[in-house]
């Protein structure tokens, strides 16, 4: 069982990953590896975790230019695909139709020994893909849905395809789960239990959103959507800073009204509601994983007053940070 990636011009083998036959078994141990990319077209890495019928892949790369690859795989899989950054287009080979993904989009696809060409656009590529065995995945498909019955037929016939023709937008909840999966530092059986629970939670959100026919397209322009996501990313990368709504809007070249309205529409919360939650979740992780003092954590998430931090933590989780520390 393997995956191979070739340079479309020179036909040189760029990447080859061979997976054990236990890749989709249910009795193997957890395995992890990281492949580093260093080539004329860019640099980055691809981290993989696989166990008990589940494969997790997370990649992040900076490209110098648009790149075109040829890919080959010889296994059957259902993939939960999340395009966190960048734009891709897969065509040809055994694919019945072109598969496109843009930044902030997700979908579920089925592949059976697929091959073809894939083109990546954009300076930065970031993705998360979770592969499940078809037998495992079909246990969670509802029986009373035309959408899921059609996808089940695709799997049964061994034809590659998407669950939904139109991709959906990655929600704030999905981002949070993906981050918890990628940054999980547990070991052994506890890591397997944690990752399995998070993957099931993420799959639930995907299936619910993909099957919901009442979801309307955003009223925002694509340029405004990009700006609002840029604010989200800025907040997460500057968790300890202090900004006003006006400053954040000006930072990405929009106005306060568009930012407030768009953030609520895309993420279901206010800008500062999101930021506060992000601060508290980060604080919780620092206390649990980094053995930092409450004062150090308070400074790390931008609070000048430790008591104010403790009050905010209690409002978020229902108990003070000192209790978590103990």
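^ structure tokens above, recovered residues below v
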């Amino acid at each position: 069982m393997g995956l191979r990636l070739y340079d479309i011009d020179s036909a040189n083998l760029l990447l080859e990953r061979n997976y054990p036959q236990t890749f989709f078994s249910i009795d193997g141990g957890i395995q992890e590896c990281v492949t580093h990319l260093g080539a004329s077209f860019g640099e980055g890495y691809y981290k993989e975790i696989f166990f008990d019928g589940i494969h997790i892949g997370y990649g992040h790369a900076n490209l110098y230019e648009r790149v075109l690859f040829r890919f080959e795989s010889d296994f059957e899989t259902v993939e939960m695909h999340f395009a966190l950054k960048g734009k891709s287009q897969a065509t040809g080979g055994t694919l019945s139709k072109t598969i496109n993904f843009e930044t902030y989009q997700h979908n579920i696809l089925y592949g059976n020994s697929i091959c073809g060409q894939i083109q990546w656009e954009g300076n930065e590529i970031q993705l998360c893909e979770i592969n499940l065995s078809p037998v495992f995945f079909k246990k969670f498909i509802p029986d009373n849905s035309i959408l899921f019955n059609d996808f089940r037929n695709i799997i049964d016939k061994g034809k590659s395809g998407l669950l939904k023709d139109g991709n959906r937008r990655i929600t704030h909840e999905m981002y949070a789960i993906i981050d918890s999966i990628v940054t999980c530092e547990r070991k052994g059986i506890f890591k397997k239990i944690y990752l399995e629970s998070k993957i099931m939670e993420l799959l639930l959100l995907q299936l619910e959103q993909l099957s919901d026919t009442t979801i309307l397209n955003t009223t925002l322009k694509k340029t405004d959507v990009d700006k609002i996501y840029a604010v989200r990313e800025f907040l997460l990368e500057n968790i300890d800073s202090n900004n006003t709504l006006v400053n954040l809007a000006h930072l990405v070249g929009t106005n306060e009204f568009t930012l407030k309205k768009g953030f609520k529409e895309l993420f279901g919360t206010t800008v500062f509601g999101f930021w506060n939650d992000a601060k508290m979740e980060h604080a919780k992780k620092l206390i649990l994983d980094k053995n930092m003092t409450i004062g150090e954590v308070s400074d790390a998430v931008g609070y000048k007053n430790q008591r104010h931090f403790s009050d905010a933590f209690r409002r978020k989780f229902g108990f003070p940070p000192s209790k978590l520390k103990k």
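The mean pLDDT is 85.
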